[in-house]
User: Fold Red fluorescent protein eqFP611 from Entacmaea quadricolor.
Amino acid sequence: MNSLIKENMRMMVVMEGSVNGYQFKCTGEGDGNPYMGTQTMRIKVVEGGPLPFAFDILATSFMYGSKTFIKHTKGIPDFFKQSFPEGFTWERVTRYEDGGVFTVMQDTSLEDGCLVYHAKVTGVNFPSNGAVMQKKTKGWEPNTEMLYPADGGLRGYSQMALNVDGGGYLSCSFETTYRSKKTVENFKMPGFHFVDHRLERLEESDKEMFVVQHEHAVAKFCDLPSKLGRL
Assistant:
């Protein structure tokens, strides 16, 4: 247990960027229990609102990127909590099946006992008649991220699905590289493992100008038994 990371932690976030050339900025604040893997965040669009695209494509960069709030089961070293007080960064490319591409660069730091996130995002090639630009998405299904050590950090891959108005899904693939600001020689790296995520929107108002979302995340090994004794 990292003494700098308490059982209840506050967080603050500033996100800015563009989607199909449209500029915007969001801020958020929240709290949660990093050791139980639960967190709640309240997010406001402070520039460029109401957004002309679905807020859902931003949602995963607020909380699916809030990696300090993951419960790690026994035997899995916590790469993210070990990174403090220096913190960590991550870069992600999300490719949607309709051709849209969403890239994120995020920095996580610890300031006066509060986790502070700065995110730069860029979305391109989202079809004007697609679910994202028509704002016809209805939230993310739960998913599992696959993680393993790579290039001195962690590499994450996952397939995700957005619910769409009228039934059906818009699927996408995530590829994320996580890097600690601390040299990896100073802590224990995890091996191959998975993280289950459930990201839910609890509240929204004013045409998605204000959103409250909650996430529960747990790191684990494969649940299936191995004949070779592997985890």
Observations:
- The mean pLDDT is 96.
